[in-house]
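Input/output pair, single chain:
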Amino acid sequence: MQGNSLLKIGLWRRLLEDFKLLGALIKDYWKGDYRDVSLGSIAVFVLAIAYVLSPIDILSDFIPFLGQIDDAFILLLCIYLLEKDLQKYHNWKSNRS
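Output:
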């Protein structure tokens, strides 16, 4: 049972780190310091943000808790699809330090 809890904590920590890394990647891309991002990853990110901000959802945001599940799923899918570019960016950032 305890191993399962540690796994959940590890997954949350990894997800949080990926979101932080995505934020840093966006900042460096915006400043022009890092441009090695695939067009597909840019499209995935833009579409995910558009979906989350859109008032049209699979599950209406007016339904408490359930309305946010589809948004969370889209963000998780986005992070999953961006994994290769996030790893490439992480390596680039680590080599600069």
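The first helix runs from residue 2 to 31. The CA atoms of residues 11 and 17 lie 10 Å apart.
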